[in-house]
Amino acid sequence: MLGGDNSEPNSAICQVIQNNKDWVSEVQAKNPDYFTNLAKGQSPKLLWIGCSDSRMAVDVLTQTNPGDIFIHRNIANRIPSEDLNVLSVIEYAVKHLKVEHVIIAGHTACGGVKAALSNGSVGILDHWLRPIKDLYVANEEEINALPESQRVDRLGELNVIQGVTTVSKLPVVHEAWREGRELRIHGWMLQLHSGLLKDLDVSVSGPKQVESIFKLESGSH
Question: Which residues are catalytic?
Fold first, then answer.
């Protein structure tokens, strides 16, 4: 252990390590070559951009295996067009891994969206959540017309929809479309009360669904 009082093992950490050992043993018993094959590389068809919320366990809720989904997560599943972190993930997934689907996934009762909908300060997150406040202002009439219990989830949906729009305008996405590749961008919401994924029906599958001003040509000035 690093630092702190290490006279008593941290039971939570020890449990995680033990769970890993148990999982490895179980997998190897079923397929001795599993990890040898896993180490050879990855070819996921999906990129998942979701919230960091601990309840959003992607592999569990989608029942997928290691190597199936390339994943990026942050507070409130935001996709700022100037954030090199998320842009690097999208660039790598689309250009190099050649994923066929990009999923922007929010969830109900999102703490980040709830904070954005309030006047309370949450420290440095105030800066990160500011665009969600702007999104609320742009849709204030619609959101305020809803019962208070539904406002956070609706703003969360609008945040996902905005994420789909942002990704559909990225140059790397249009480059893939120009190459004739299949690439679809989806917006989903995880319903925590049921465990089900809700398709917001805002998928973008090609440049015809994007305003012409965002259709960049390679090498243009």
Answer: 51, 53, 55, 107, 110
